[in-house]
TrEMBL record:
Native species: Salegentibacter flavus
A GO MF term: transferase activity
Zinc is among the record's keywords: no
Pfam family, one: Methyltransf_25
Location of the Methyltransferase domain: 65-161
Phylogenetic classification of the source organism: Bacteria, Pseudomonadati, Bacteroidota, Flavobacteriia, Flavobacteriales
Keyword tags: Transferase
Keyword Transcription: no
The protein's name in its UniProt record: Methyltransferase domain-containing protein
Domain of life: Bacteria
Length: 237
């Protein structure tokens, strides 16, 4: 059995980091990731954070929310459904650097008029000019290096009127082994399997998130562990 070291974040790349990945192969991987989030309750981590920020700011009539690294747009569609059910006005934007992922997201979201998708590099000047009420980063932050993360968090914090909401993985041996078992039963796609395990090793411990939080000036951070091996991290002014 492979020895797993979770003391530090791995710098191993994920297959999904290749923005040339597209077609049926990418669509299958994104669908598997969507199912994993649905089955293991990952989307609830993001949605509960949005509800918290929304409750604390009842004066806001329309919420402008961006999902950074939106993939096939599944998270935004769930948010749109919640907004419609609760009569909450939402303007939703999904950004991703993979043009193929954005193409898939647009097709799957044709019946959601309040969702817009853009091919965009978060390090670009065009993205830096954007402003939102809430910036979401769902299973995206772990794709970046520590210095990149600090720079992005400072940017997100500046862009967000009310808060930045991170939903990402707890780096844990138990999480790694449980995901291996989960994949044997439920996940047949090899890329989803390999990248899922690498993602865990690129994930975070609470001390990492606290260290990052200390680098963001004039901010308040709330970090909570959630099932299944997720951290909900809310950064507010």
């Amino acid at each position: 059995m492979k020895i797993i070291n979770t003391s530090f974040r791995t710098n191993q790349a994920e297959i999904m980091d290749n923005f040339e990945l597209g077609g049926e192969e990418l669509e299958k991987v994104l669908k598997d990731l969507e199912n994993i989030n649905k089955w293991l309750g990952g989307n609830k981590v993001t949605l509960s954070g949005i509800k918290k920020i929304q409750r604390e700011n009842p004066q806001e009539q329309e919420w402008n929310i961006v999902d950074v690294g939106c993939g096939n747009g599944a998270m935004l569609r769930e948010i749109a459904q919640w907004g419609k059910k609760n009569n909450i006005e939402l303007k939703l934007t999904g950004v991703d650097a993979n043009i193929h992922a954005i193409s898939i997201a647009k097709r799957l979201s044709e019946n959601y008029p309040n969702i817009e998708f853009k091919v965009m590099d978060v390090f670009s000047e065009s993205y830096r000019k954007q402003n939102f009420d809430i910036v979401l980063c769902t299973l995206t932050l772990h794709h970046f290096t520590d210095p990149q993360i600090i720079n992005l968090l400072k940017l997100f914090h500046r862009q967000a009127k009310y808060g930045v909401l991170i939903n990402d993985l707890h780096r844990s041996k138990i999480a790694y082994r449980l995901f291996q078992v989960f994949c044997r039963v439920f996940i047949r796609n090899e890329i989803a399997r390999k990248d899922g395990l690498t993602s865990i090793l690129r994930g975070f411990k609470k001390s990492d998130l606290e260290r990052f939080s200390a680098k963001i000036p004039a901010s308040q951070a709330e970090i909570k562990w959630k099932w299944a091996f997720r951290y909900q991290w809310i950064i507010q002014k």
